[in-house]
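Researcher: Last one for today. Full complex below.
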Amino acid sequence: MASSNPTKVLLLGPTKSGKTTLANFLSDAKDAIGQYRPTVGCRILEFQIESSQLAHHSSSRTNNNNTNNSEIQLWDCSADRNVSNCLPALANDAAGVLLVYDITADDHTTELEELYNVWNNYLELSPSRYLIVARKWGDGQPNRKRTIKMGTLARLSRVEWDIDSDGHRVQNEFSSFMSSVLLDIRPESL
Ligand SMILES: Nc1nc2c(ncn2[C@@H]2O[C@H](COP(=O)(O)OP(=O)(O)O)[C@@H](O)[C@H]2O)c(=O)[nH]1
Ligand SMILES: [Mg+2]
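Model: Here's the assembly. Have a good evening.
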């Protein structure tokens, strides 16, 4: 059984950072990796996280006998300017944010920091409601100068993800992140 109100999570990051690939992976959508197809506007994916997965990551405050699954609504937002114009509407009621960037791209940490500053003006969420997903694939090497200059992002939790070698790690980190978000917004539901 699913809980009645889906929990809204935004997926933000520079163009070609792997947002849509991550959204498809987390929601088990079948789009394969391949030719780049830019996301137009915002794409919303709904899926459930099973209570057993969430309970696994929760503290002793959790009622493990509760069989409710949690409905997640993932908003895969394009980084284009038209979308930024609708930012207040998109940000409305979001409980958590995944910030995605490609560690091999020169300008992604700067862009990500800008995105965080702009969106958090509307979201006003605590650092615990953000999870940074650092993407790496192929033979690309991290841009060291940029990775150490994470500035305001340094206080947010961060997971590295390479879909080709450790696909399930991000799934676990996402479940753990969602159980803490859900405990925060409705402690009675877990
Ligand atoms: N091999 C490989 N390619 C990826 C991976 N993640 C993304 N890509 C490719 O990188 C491009 C951009 O990914 P996409 O998720 O559409 O980025 P978005 O613009 O942030 O939504 C696409 O061509 C993807 O197929 C990955 O983990 N491995
Ligand atoms: Mg996309």
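The two ends are 13 Å apart (CA to CA). Residues 148 and 154 are 9 Å apart (CA to CA).
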